[in-house]
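Input chain follows. Return structure tokens only.
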Amino acid sequence: MSRSGNVFAVGIELDGEGYHPAAWRRAAHPPDAFLTGDTLRKRVSAAENAGFTLATFDDSILPPVGHPAARIDGVTRASFVAATTSTIGLVATVATTYAEPFHTSAQLATLDYASRGRGGWIATTIAAPAAATTWGRPARTTEAELAREQRDSIEVARRLWDSWEDDAVVRDHAASRFLDRDKLHYIDFTGETFSVRGPAIVPRPPQGQVVVFAYDTTESGAVDVILVAGRDLAQTLAAADRARATGALVFAELEVALDIPHATAAQRIADPDEYASANPTERLTFSGSPTDLVRLITELAHHVDGVRLHPAVIDEDLPALARHVLPALFRSGVLHRPVPGSTLRANLGLARPINRYAKDQH
């Protein structure tokens, strides 16, 4: 169980070939197969069969650092595997900086429909001037500007998801009546950099609100899950303590490289290090045996509501996680498999939000 009594969750990042920039050299497929649907589908299927609560898909308007320096956008990847999965949550990264929140909310609501209520959103900011150039927008560079745009974008998306009441769609074919116009609402949002009237062009998502993730934040009630990082366990737990005050669930970020039958974790990292050094991050890093990783995750489960694992090499670490780490967590009761037919919200222990505009729900 997690520290709050909710079910403990384990997610996995499936962007690229792994967190190491030279992970592609140890991939189980030729480089030209990296961007194929078959590779993506196999990895997500493996993660679902292993029992991961959710998979995440990193993204940015700028190309990723290292090789391969290309990706298909996160929402498209999540939507592509939505029909071939049934239990795993599908969480796409979409930056709030410069992006139109009306379009973002529609994309994510559509993902939630495609996945039958398993959609999620990691809201991020992007300060690189090249992003502003790519969008053709004035640069947002200060922390205050980035935070304001993120805050407003999340608020607009949430209002738009509520702009259709749950029973707004009528589907009375005999009377040629398909919508109850009284159950669609203007959101009338005006911020410092944009305004949105609404309503949305997509009905309210199956979850009511797509699950919103964000990195360490002080905004109370703004998001459902906060991702926290620290270079060691003490820093990670300190970040978790700060995030807990917001009332959101707290997930720890954890980079992992595991011992496998033919190579230790140290050997596996040393090999790609000959070609490119791993990019330094603020995330907690683990390198060692599956048994020791189980111990670390079990310790974290006393303090946080979940962890998101970043494999060094997806094609090597994912099988080891599936064979040795998740089964041990299931046996100990720390982790439980997602319930078939449930939403991501339900599998995280989150309630379905009340629609702010529905008069009969207040």
